[in-house]
Structure formats: C-alpha cells, structure tokens
Amino acid sequence: MDASHPNGSYVGRVSRHRQHGQRRRGPGAEATARRRRVTAVAVAVGAVVVGSGVGLGLWASGDDGGPAAAPSSPSPTPSPTRSYPLSEAPRTIPAVREHTAERGPGWRPASGHRVVVSDPALEDEGKLTAQELGLTYAGEKDDERPGDVRLELNRDGGANPESYTLTVRGGRVTVSGPGEAGVFYGTRTLKQEMSGTGAAPEGVVRDEPAKPRRGMMLDIARKHYGAGWIEDRIRELGDLKYNEIGLHFSDDQGFRIESDSHPEIVSKDHLTKAQVQKIVDLAESRHITVVPEIDSPGHLGAVIDAHPDLQLRKTNGEAVRGAVDIANPKSAQIVDDLLDEYAGLFPGDQWHLGGDEYQALVVSDPEATFPGLASAARDKYGPGATVEDLTTGWLNDRAATVRAHDRVPRAWNDGFFPGGSVQADEDIRVAYWTGKEIGARKPAEYLAEGREVINYNDEFLYYVLGEPLTFVYPTGERIYEQWTPRVLRGTTPVPAKYDRQILGGSFAIWGDLPRSQTQEQVAAGIRMPLRALAQKLWDAREPALSWAEFRALADRLG
Question: How is residue 422 annotated by DSSP?
Fold first, then answer.
C-alpha cells in the first residue's frame, strides 16, 4: 500500500462526487452529460462576468483553499470584457477531468515571460518548463509580472499528491498542487496546450488521476534496447502522465545490466550501471519510478548458463529450461545477492519479483517428477507440503529480501496458488496478466482475498514482438473503446466493488522474437496504445472524444 494513498487508490473531489447517486448511462450519454456540465459551469461564470464586471477572482483560491485576496493594484493587462467568448476546455492526452470556463484572452508564451517557483523543491519542474516553452527561468520569486508562469506547492496534506490546479487568468498562469508530481503534471497539460493550439485557455483546470499506478514495462532481457531509446520513452511517458517504467532485465535469453556481485552472468550487450543511473535520474525528474524485475525461480536461464550447478533437473537428468533448483540454498543466495545489489541502483519503492511459469509446476505430478523439491518442501513446511508450497515459500523469501530495502513487492498472478500449506504474503501485489495457465484462477478470486492488483491484461496490454502463439499487437482503438482498469481478463470487468483494490495498469513490451521489429518500429507500434492507456488510467469513464477525434488529437499534439 502506498503510504500517501489510503487503500492504494485515489478518491478526490471529482471522483467522490460521482460515487453517490449516479446510475450507469447508455453509450455516449455520460460523455454528453459531461459536456453539458462544463457548459453549465461556463454559462454561470459568464453571467457573473457580464452582470458584475468582476468575476475573474471568483474561481481563484488561496493556499488554504479559501478565496484568494483581491489584487492590490489593477492588473497590468486589460480586464476581460464581453468581446471574449467563454473559453473551451483544453484538449490534452489524457483529457483534463474538470475545466471551469471563463472569459479572457488566455495565455501565450512570449519573449520576456518568466517561469517562477514558490519553493526550491520545484526547481527541476521550473527549469524544464522554461526550456520547453522558450521562457526564462527566474527561480524563487514573490513578485508578479505580466506573462508569468508560476509553479506553487500548496502542501495540502489531505489531497491527492498527484492532483493539480492550473489557473489562466489576468495574463498569467499558475500551476499549484499538494506535491511536486501534481505540479509537474500541470506543466504537462500546459505543454500540450502549447503543442495543440499555441495558447492556454482562460479558466481553471482541476485534475487528478483515477489510478495511482500507471506504467509501461519493457523486456530488455530478450531484446537489448539502447539507453537513448529508453530515455526517449521516459520523456514520452512523462508527457502522458505515466509514473512507472518497468525493466525486465533478466531472463533465459540474457542478463542486461552490469553486475559487480556476479559479473559472470552479464550478457555482452547490456546497460552499464552509469547508463542505468542516468535513466533513473531522468525518470525521477519526470516523477516516474523505475521498477526492476529479476524474475525467479523460473526465467533464470542466463544465470544458469554461468552456474549450471543450479539447474533444476527431472529424475531422468533432463534439464528444465530456465528453472533453478529451489531446494539448493545456492539458488536463493545468488538471487538475493542480485536483489541486494540492484536495490542500490534502483531507489524507487516498487519491485517486481516475477514468480511466473516455474516449469516444475507444469508437469502432471511435480512431487514424483522432482522428488528433491518434494522432500525439501516436507522438511521445511511439514509432511503434507507440496512443491507448490516450496515455490510459494521461495516467493515470500524474495519478498522479504526486497522488503528489507523498503520496497513494495509484486509478482505475476500465476505465482499465487490457492489452498496449500503456504500462502503468498498479503503485501505482495498481484500483477495480473493471464488466465491461460494450468489451474487458472479468475481475477475476482485474488481480489476476494483482499489483494491489491495491477492490470497487465495480455489480451489488451501485451505487445509481444513477432506475435507468437495467439498474441496479436494491441491497438489503441481497442484499449480506448473496450478496456478499463477493471477488465483484468478477457473483456469482462470485475465487479465495481473491487475497483479500489485495482491500483492501475501497465502496458508490457515483450521481446519473444526480438528481430521481428527494430527499436524504431516498436516506438511507432506502441505510440497509440500508450496514449489510449494513459487516458483510461487517468479517467476510466467513457471518453468525451470518439476514437477518430482522439487519434486526430494525438497527431496534433505529437
């Protein structure tokens, strides 16, 4: 559970309002109603402006949430008059959740305009915004000048730390939020406004994500990606308000990050620690957590190649591809060595343990096929324990290793087993990707146990190079029109009562047939799926735009 997000979910002003007394509407009705609500608010504001000659200060708020103090002197720019039409909501990806329209000229960047901050903690956000918009970064300032873009922290401890308010009024822009991440997202909205129309419309945007975990996972073990390509994806993800990038860097085909504790396992094509540190630093500047994954006890072929004594074998001596012998203490030692080492390289609070497709469990009788594992299970957990129990114990032990580094563990859903003498620790989050495994369990079973789940639905969110088996490349249109965070398996959503336990979702790029696409082709292929997913993780309701309109907007924004 995220300490800053009770129950691992966000329920802000907008979402709380929608949870009470609203029935589900037919297709298109909710989007139409949303447009009507914005229009109604806009008309109300317009009436105030026309009737009183003031009104621009009515929607502003001070740091304590109350009305902002009136300016002590007239604005240096002309006050809005009836000659200005009511503003329209900005068109961005993901779409803003709430916009209050006002009359006024809006804001455009111009020579001499500054970016100023209220707190030195916003220096990175301020410098980046100034660079992107061609403005001057003036640092921490209290004075106001025409054309200023001001970034503020309001330190509202009870608010969603990723929420923000963007106010365009009186020839200035103010982006405020309770946390640095929220302010950053406000600058992403401003940047997209400049890319789309070149101007920010007069009025107030109040925005926050529906889900706290919004990610993309990249398999760099099967296919080596250059550091520069990964950095480009981080910039792209940041602009779309994602907050995770997963790196699956160990598998049967390769181990792709430099290691000091076990250099013998590292593949020829790999990232150096210096390159990874640069990736991590860039991600942190975009408020993106890098989530490392060393999958075990399966998918460890690259480790086994250097340590054949760890290989799991059947009674006839046949090697089991990618699987280590979890009855051998040396197997746990080498994996823990790696987890401890990379905890120093990846400072984020999330860690993926893998746990899927351990081949000892796909045979009809694991205890007969692997008597050494069966004996170890009984010795450790009692006479009725099974190979499944020993495997769950392995997962719990690895979770303890990363938990000692203050990391929150997650594992693939086929690493969780019902019944048995040993259960997976309650704090291990379920990365739900498939229902095709032997003994597949329905998503609701994990949720009924009280577990938190992250959606990796392979029917919508898996981009598997070469389209092996039954996989096909996902499309943005299908995600946009059919998927929501509650659609964990197939196309049917789980009951709404579980929504708060579903923390978000992640797109996943797998390199099963690595030569099927170049890096450039991968970037092009994932472009629209990433944008569609960004929209649905930020706001799972029916989008206001049609798919054709959304695609055109994506092309306009770049």
Answer: -
The domain locations on the chain are 29-64+78-207, 213-557
Q: What backbone phi and psi angles, to 5 degrees, belong to 144?
A: -120, 135
- What phi, psi does 166 have (nearest 5°)? -120, 115
Residue 141 Cα to chain centre, angstroms? 33
Percent of the chain with pLDDT over 70: 85
Query: For the CA atoms of the chain, what is the radius of gyration?
Result: 26
Whole-Å CA distances, 191 to 147, 186, 213, 411, 437: 15, 9, 22, 36, 44
Q: How far is CA 535 from CA 47, 188, 242, 251, 258, in A?
A: 32, 14, 10, 31, 36
For 284-329, what is each residue's pLDDT tens digit? 999 999 999 999 999 999 999 999 999 999 999 999 999 999 999 9
Cβ contact 113:219 at 8 Å: no
- CATH (one of 1.10.246.90, 3.20.20.80, 3.30.240.20, 3.30.1300.10) for 213-557: 3.20.20.80
How many other CB atoms are found less than 10 A from the CB of residue 250? 30
The phi-psi region of residue 102 (left if phi > 0; otherwise alpha if psi is between -120 and 50; otherwise beta) is: beta
Full DSSP string of 50-78: HHHS--TTSS---TTSSPPPPPSS--SSP
Report residue 287 as tokens: 């408020």
CATH number listed for the domain at residues 29-64+78-207: 3.30.379.10
pTM listed for this prediction: 0.86
CB 432 within 8 A of CB 494: no
DSSP-H helix ranges across 197-244: 227-239
The C-alpha atoms of residue 98 and residue 165 are separated, in whole angstroms, by 10
pLDDT of residue 77: 52
Q: What is the CA 278 to chain-centroid distance, rounded?
A: 20
Cβ neighbours, 10 Å, residue 159: 20
By the 10 Å C-beta count (0-12 exposed, 13-18 middle, 19+ buried), 480 is classed as: buried
pLDDT tens track for 113-171: 999 999 999 999 999 999 999 999 999 999 999 999 999 999 877 899 999 999 999 99
